[in-house]
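Troubleshooting log. The previous run stalled partway through. Resubmitting the same two chains, unchanged.
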Amino acid sequence: MSNAATTDLLQQRYGEQHAANALNNPVIDHLLNHRSVRSYSDRALPDGTLETLIAAAQSAATSSNLQAWSVIEVRDPARRARLARLANNQRHIEQAPLFLIWLADFSRAQRIASQHYTELRAPSYLDSLLVGSVDAALAAQNAVVAAEALGLGTVYIGALRNDLQAVVDELELPPLVYPVFGLCVGYAATDSAIKPRLPQAVTLHHETYQVDAAQEQRLIGDYEALAAAFSRAQGQNTPGWSEQVINRLKDESALHGRERIGKVLNDQQLALR
Amino acid sequence: MSNAATTDLLQQRYGEQHAANALNNPVIDHLLNHRSVRSYSDRALPDGTLETLIAAAQSAATSSNLQAWSVIEVRDPARRARLARLANNQRHIEQAPLFLIWLADFSRAQRIASQHYTELRAPSYLDSLLVGSVDAALAAQNAVVAAEALGLGTVYIGALRNDLQAVVDELELPPLVYPVFGLCVGYAATDSAIKPRLPQAVTLHHETYQVDAAQEQRLIGDYEALAAAFSRAQGQNTPGWSEQVINRLKDESALHGRERIGKVLNDQQLALR
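Second attempt completed without errors. Output:
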């Protein structure tokens, strides 16, 4: 059964209707306690931080042990500023003491194959794009968990795909490589709160994908209210959650250039078939 | 500086040339200690395990708070057997006490939009396939870390994409949903060891993607030797790592049907443009 600290974390995540049956454990409390950090102090990171995050990242599972990902640490302030401009002007990209860009990478595999006079055909298939992207995501999430264990905050930067060609050029990426997302890491300058999520009953299905429309509508309504109370408590005047989802997915305008990534990936010899 | 336990974990992961500068911490040691488990005992999981894993998963970051993923728990032995057959006959799919299938899901967003008489155009873009797949991967990795904190083992099942249409049918997935991978969870029946990974210097780049070909070749050679020693110690008679990579990526035959996922995703109204 949950102890008081776990119950409190679950209530912040799910409201009063929390997962009452959850088990507790220091590592699990640590995971439940996640919040994204978008404002960083200039406090330097301890020596060894980067090595530690990479070791955690490499300890995650990887499809067929291909290790089809790489990561770039960007320090140069001018390059950071250019990348921030490409990613919707998120100033934490310039501010965070550590900025990492996670790559799906089949170029290394091709270099290995070239030494054996072999051309690889599989990387250009759509499935390989998923293999590399998922590999990078599993690795990065382990780095996030490790960073938080060191008292650091993080935020993912998906907007690095807004102008994918410019980022490919900036990072001098060879064919068979693409940037999946960025990640800022540093000490939080301000407190941030645990963001509520959808009820488990909306996210978890049993046996097959079945939806009870009336129940789903009611549970999403409950979440809408919880998310609105959260926004008010944060002093934010945001639209309701459903409206945010619709605005983000309604048409190309909300993709901020990401509607064009297919072409750039193809130029990188990825997702060709 | 690392303590003795952390140093031991890093040596198992990287060999003698480990990341000597890594910081230590119980959560980080926990991450470094990961190994995949492919043989499960029939010991039942404690009540609340599933709720705990889902709470951890939902605590991970999600792009624009879209929460563009769902998960299906499959218990029915007949369905498990059919899924195992579709995924390269991996018997742990039938054996593990818990089997979860992680989905990229824009169907829920479309149901919300439909209540507002809106058709969503963005989900059919390739970028949305990545958003949903990355969301699912971040969530699942948190579930893996939580499972291991409860003393459980896990293994990802990417082979669930080998015959994607059959899995879509089996799980009755609506348009705008696809299964990214499966995940087995349970108590390990046998010990498994920490698998070595590439040296950090091969995976981590600075500022831009630059490769010193001679250094990379040497470091990959070192890794090849480490991986071979690991395989021998496990009593496995496997080809060298480079050969495994080439065999897995050389041509369509090693994709085991995954060369056809583009068509299935398109039929699911995903990755159309």
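Takeaways: The mean pLDDT of chain B is 96. Chain B touches chain A through 132 residues (CB under 8 Å).
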